[in-house]
Structures are given as structure tokens and as C-alpha cells.
Amino acid sequence: MTRYLIIGASRGLGEVLHRTVPVVGDRCWLVSRSEPALRLADGVTRTWIRADLTERASADVIAQAIEAEPLDVVIYNAGIWEDEAFSPDYRFEDVSDEEDARVLAVNLTTAIPVLKRLIPALRRGVRPKIVLIGSVNGLPYVNAPEVAYNASKFGLRGVAHALRTGLRRDRIAVTILNPGSFGVPRFVDGQLINATGGDADACIPPQDLATLVRAIVSLSNATVVRELDVMAMEDPW
Prior knowledge:
By secondary structure, the protein is an alpha/beta fold. The chain has one domain: NAD(P)-binding Rossmann-like Domain (Rossmann fold). Helices cover 33% and strands 20% of the residues. The protein has six helices and nine strands; from the N terminus they run βαββαβααβαβββαβ. The strands form two sheets. The chain has a seven-stranded parallel beta sheet with strand order 3-2-1-4-5-6-9, sandwiched between helices. It is globular, with a radius of gyration of 17 Å.
């Protein structure tokens, strides 16, 4: 049995990960504001932890919900962006300070206390791993103007690299996965169908990202994948 905690699990990539990565007999704690799909006929036990990552207290809510349980895999998938991000209407000076703070809190600053409180549970796990979902927008010299979003994902890479160094003695592997444009998942009768939304053919299929996460989770504790940059063929490289 593998015990997962997936943060940002109710929709998007988080929903894909909790539906496709665990297998029969595994247990998942799913963190989100809205209730995710829990009763699936796949033999996985799922528990919802309701938490709002804009609030620093959410770190304690998450830690208290798992109590003394060990964890094998923590996936920090939470990610939001400015309302006008990735559109011609985005202008940094038009974004409110409150909106900038919300993006930074969910994507970065709340991740730090959350991960800090989960380290004891990971130390009790089997081949423990942390997988952080970053973005190509956090890579050096990115050609994108979204200030808060880019800063949050660039900072998350710093969290990953520092944690990896600090947790090496505990043999807790830390990986950051930086995807480019990926499609919106669509489920039909519980099955993941080709992504929709925008030009789906120009996006990374979300199931490809799930395949990479499964591979990372399967590794022994003698190996660590430091960072993976995953681009859509149509992305500007």
C-alpha cells in the first residue's frame, strides 16, 4: 500500500493524479476547497481534507487531518494565477496587491509551512517522496509577463532544491516537475479521455504528466529525480 497526500486535488491535474496514479489498496488524502470525487470503483481509499491554501492555518489543518499516519508520497499541485494571466489583457500594474498576494500564498508561501508539518509523516513512510508541480514559467529567462505567477513558480523551484539538500539524510526524495501547456482533462464514466480546451493537440496530455509521476513514485530510495521540464511540442522552447 502506498499512502498519498495530494494538495490541489479537486480538478485539473490534481484530479488526474488522484484518479490515475494510485492503485488498488492505496490510500489518498485529497486536499482542496471543493470536494473531489471520492467514491470511485478503483479500490483506492480516499479522504477529503477541506483546506483553503490562501490561509496559513491550512498547514495545521492538513497536518492534523492525517494525525499519526505515515505518508509515502506528498504531491503539492496547488496552482492559481492572475485573473488576466496568459491573455493579451494582462498588465502587471492593473493587478491588485490582494490578487498578487493570493497567487503567491497558494503557489508558494503556504507550501513552505505545509511541507514542514508533513516531514515527520514522510519520515515514517516507505521510499518517501515529495513531488512539487512547478511550471516552465518558473524557469530562467521565461518569456512571459505574469509577475506573481512566475515569481511563485520560480520560488517553488528554490523550495525544491533546498528541501532536497536538507532531506537527503532522511532519504526523502524531492522532485519538481515543470510542465508547459497541458490540456484540460475530461472524464467520461470515470475514464480519462483526451484533453479538451484550447487547441488540445498543441498541449501536453495530462495523462503524460501522470505517467511521469507514477515513474517517480516507483523509484527506490537510492534515486532522486531532481527536476523535469516537460514541454508541449507546440510550446516556444
